[in-house]
C-alpha cells in the first residue's frame, strides 16, 4: 500500500505481473548461464594470466610438506611449472641426491603430493624394525 491508502499498481490490467522485474531476472539468469560457460573447470586449459599460486608460495608449500611428511635430511629444489602443477625436486642427504619423483603442488588449489611418499614411509619403517 502506498501513502494515503492508495494501492500502487505493479502489473498490467490482464494480470501479467511486473514485466520489467521479470525481464531483469531473465537477463540476469542468462548472464549467469553464459558466465558459467566461461568459468574454467578442472581439466580445462590453464589461465593464460598464469597460475593462481606463485612460484615462491608453491615452494613454501613444498618445503613445509617435505619437513612434515618426509622428515629426513634434505631440501626442496627449484620448481618449474608443468601444466597444472609446480614440480619441485626432493633432494636427499648432504649430497642433495634428487628423488626420481618431484613434489607436486597444484598451481590453483595448492594441494601437494609426492609419488615417492609410500615407498619412503615403508623404508623408514623397515629401518625402525632393524636391530642395531
Write the layout of secondary structure elements.
Layout: H1 19-38, H2 55-70, E1 74-76, E2 80-82, E3 85-88, E4 90-92, E5 97-98, E6 103-106, E7 112-114, H3 117-129
Antiparallel strand pairs: 1-4, 2-3, 3-6, 4-5, 6-7
Structural summary, described in words:
This protein is 37% helix and 17% strand. With 132 residues, the protein is α+β, with helices and mostly antiparallel strands. The strands form two sheets. It has a four-stranded antiparallel sheet with strand order 2-3-6-7, covered by helices on one side. The protein has a three-stranded antiparallel sheet with strand order 1-4-5. The termini are far apart.
In short:
Helix content is 37%, strand content 17%.
Q: Separation of termini?
A: 90 Å
Q: Roughly how much helix do the residues carry, as a percent range?
A: 25-40%
Shape annotation: elongated
Number of helices: 3
Number of strands: 7
Beta content = 15-25%
SSE arrangement, N to C: HHEEEEEEEH
Uncertain spans, ≥5 residues at pLDDT below 50?
27-46
Radius of gyration: 28 Å
Helix vs. strand class: alpha+beta
Strand arrangement in the largest pleated sheet: 2-3-6-7
- Biggest β-sheet, characterized? 4 strands, antiparallel
Features:
132 residues, 17% strand, three-stranded antiparallel β-sheet, 3 helices, alpha+beta, four-stranded antiparallel β-sheet
Amino acid at each position: 500500500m502506498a501513502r494515503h491508502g492508495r494501492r500502487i499498481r505493479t502489473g498490467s490490467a490482464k494480470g501479467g505481473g511486473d514485466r520489467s522485474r521479470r525481464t531483469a531476472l531473465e537477463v540476469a539468469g542468462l548472464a549467469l548461464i553464459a558466465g558459467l560457460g566461461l568459468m574454467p573447470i578442472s581439466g580445462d586449459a590453464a589461465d593464460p594470466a598464469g597460475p593462481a599460486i606463485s612460484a615462491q608460495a608453491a615452494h613454501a608449500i613444498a618445503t613445509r610438506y617435505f619437513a612434515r611428511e618426509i622428515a629426513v635430511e634434505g631440501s626442496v629444489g627449484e620448481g618449474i611449472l608443468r601444466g597444472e602443477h609446480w614440480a619441485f625436486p626432493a633432494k636427499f642427504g648432504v649430497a642433495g641426491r634428487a628423488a626420481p619423483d618431484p613434489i607436486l603442488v597444484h598451481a590453483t588449489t595448492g594441494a601437494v603430493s609426492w609419488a615417492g611418499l609410500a615407498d619412503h614411509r615403508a623404508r623408514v619403517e623397515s629401518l625402525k624394525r632393524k636391530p642395531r
